[in-house]
Design goal:
Length: 343
């Protein structure tokens, strides 16, 4: 007789799992279907974000320039200290040789020169005081021993100072590497945004930037203002490099960042000013009214003083704006003016 069996029913747990999975799949599919596609930023939005990144990169660039300047200064100071230590050690050796000659002469006559005992003493200062009081040392020997001690102390101090500066140099180099990485990161992000544009959008932005560069190379109405003295000479030097590209960390003669341009221009006029915009902001006499500015004065922008240019007259500034731009004229009103600086 044929066997009639009921079909095996799936377990309740299995049904629950399958039902839940199916429901989740339906929900995910619905969400995917209803989700609005991510909107690609338009040309103007990209330009705004890129400009912001360029500004942040310039802030980091000024810190980078400051670290570079500090590194160069420390290297010079360390080199000078090491030279002084080397010369001091030679002088100390000569002093010791002189004392050794005196000690040898006394030894040959059967006595022990007190200077020898000084070097063997656990407390040279105490020994020197006592020996002098007891007339055990000649005036010449006392003077020689004092010179040795002074030279030893001086060398110890200079070695300690050189050691501290070497540590500071190592820290500065680490800071330099961090700031360089930060600048490169900002510029890389900006380039990534620009790469997201279509060829037509890129061309439109390039055309707009070219138009600004062209205006910079053309005659700008600077009014009747004329530069004089070294400020005028610095301004004339800056005018000679209009159209040169902005490159972070560059200070001429073919590319510049903002403070690189101003420091280079003043150097052409025979005036050495600090390398960074923040340091330049504190270098001369501050001018808080734009109406009092004269051609060649430094013009400081932004609250943290991270941008600087040269006053060109008639409300214009000559500056190196940012990556992707060139040295050009621009209205002071385009940036948050803080004050001018007269060198």
């Amino acid at each position: 007789m044929a066997s009639h069996r009921r079909p095996k029913q799936p377990s309740r747990a299995r049904v629950t799992v399958l039902t839940t999975a199916a429901a989740a799949a339906v929900v995910l599919s619905a969400n995917a279907a209803n989700a609005a596609p991510s909107e690609k930023p338009n040309k103007d939005e990209v330009k705004t974000k890129v400009d912001k990144l360029y500004e942040e990169a310039e802030q980091a660039t000024e810190k980078l320039d400051g670290a570079k300047e500090k590194q160069q200064k420390l290297q010079k100071e360390i080199s000078a200290l090491q030279d002084n230590v080397a010369r001091g050690q030679e002088a100390l050796n000569e002093l010791r040789d002189g004392l050794g000659s005196m000690a040898s002469a006394q030894y040959r006559t059967g006595g022990i020169d007190p200077s020898v005992a000084l070097f063997l003493s656990s407390d040279p200062d105490d020994f020197l005081d006592k020996a002098s009081a007891m007339d055990q040392l000649s005036a010449q020997q006392v003077e020689s021993l004092k010179k040795v001690q002074e030279k030893q102390r001086s060398l110890a101090q200079q070695r300690a100072e050189a050691s501290a500066k070497l540590k500071d140099l190592a820290d500065t180099r680490a800071e330099l590497a961090r700031k360089k990485k930060e600048v490169q990161g900002k510029l890389g992000s900006a380039q990534k945004l620009l790469n997201s544009l279509t060829a037509q959008e890129k061309a439109a932005l390039a055309t707009k930037e070219q138009e600004r560069a062209t205006r910079a190379s053309e005659r700008v109405d600077l009014g009747n203002s004329k530069g004089s003295g070294r400020a005028g000479a610095a301004f004339a030097a800056a005018q000679s490099v209009i159209g040169s590209p902005y490159v972070y960390g560059a200070s001429g003669p073919s590319s510049f960042d903002c403070s690189g341009l101003t420091s280079w221009a003043y150097a052409q006029a025979g005036v050495n000013i600090p390398r960074t915009s923040e340091a330049q902001a504190s270098y001369g006499t501050r001018i808080y009214s734009q109406s009092d500015l004269q051609v060649g004065d430094l013009v400081i922008f932004y609250g943290d003083q991270h941008h600087v240019g040269l006053y060109a007259g008639n409300g214009q500034v000559l500056h190196a704006p940012h990556t992707g731009a060139v040295v050009r004229y621009e209205s002071i009103a385009n940036m948050p003016f803080q004050f001018g600086v007269r060198i």
